[in-house]
Amino acid sequence: MTSRWSFPVRTAAALAAAGCAVLFGAPAADAHSVLVSSSPAEGAAVAAAPAEVALVFNEPVENRFTELAVLGPDGTSHWEAGPASVVDARVSAPLRPLGPAGGYTIRYRVTSADGHPVSGAVPFRLTVAGPVAAVPAAAVVASAGDAGSVPLWPWITGGAVLLGTGFAVARRVSRADA
Ligand SMILES: [Cu+2]
Questions:
Q1: How much distance in Å is there from the Cα of 106 to the middle of ligand 1?
Q2: CATH entry, 7-146, from 3.30.230.70, 2.60.40.1220, 1.10.600.10, 3.90.1150.10
Q3: Burial of 16 (0-12, 13-18, 19+ CB in 10 A)
Q4: For residue 20, how far is its CA from the centre of ligand 1 (angstroms)?
Q5: Cα(38) to centroid(ligand 1), Å
Q6: Residues linked to residue 95 through DSSP beta bridges, in sequence order
Q7: If 9 and its partner were Cys, which of 5, 104, 145, 147 is the partner (CB 3.0–4.6 Å)?
Q8: pLDDT tens, 127-164?
C-alpha cells in the first residue's frame, strides 16, 4: 500500500502525533495537521506578487483562530489584503501588490482537526520590486522603536535650531527695514 504523502510529511505527522500524545495525553491517532504544500512554495523565488497566498494541509483544518499573515523583508510590514479563509484543508488569504524585493514570510496559525493549534512560517523571495515602493505607515512606526534604527532627536533638535535662527534673522531684517 502506498501513501499519498512523501516520507518527510509522514515523518512530520508521526512526530506531531507523538508530540500530541506527550503534550495533551491524546491518542497518537489524533495527529496534528501538517503543512503539505504552499503557494508560493517554501523558498520559491517569484518575480511578481500572486493574487493570494495559500497553504494546504494533510487534512481539513478547523475554521477557528486561523491566522495568516505575509510579512515583508523588514519583518514587520504586513502584505496580506484581508483575513484568511479556510476551505477543508486549504487556507488562503488575498495578497496586496508587494513592495521591495527581498525575503517575505507567510506566517500561519491554524487549528488542527483534533483542536490543537499548529503554527509555522513559509519563506519566499520577491525578485523584482512591486508597485508599492513605500513600506506601510504602521511598519515605519513599529520599526522606529528598533534598537538598530537611527534616532529621531538629532533631526528634531536640528529643525528647531534652524527654525529659531530663521526667526531671529527675520526679526533683525524687519527691524533694519524699520
Ligand atoms: Cu493535536
A1: 22
A2: 2.60.40.1220
A3: buried
A4: 5
A5: 21
A6: 80
A7: 5
A8: 999 988 655 544 443 333 343 344 455 555 555 666 66
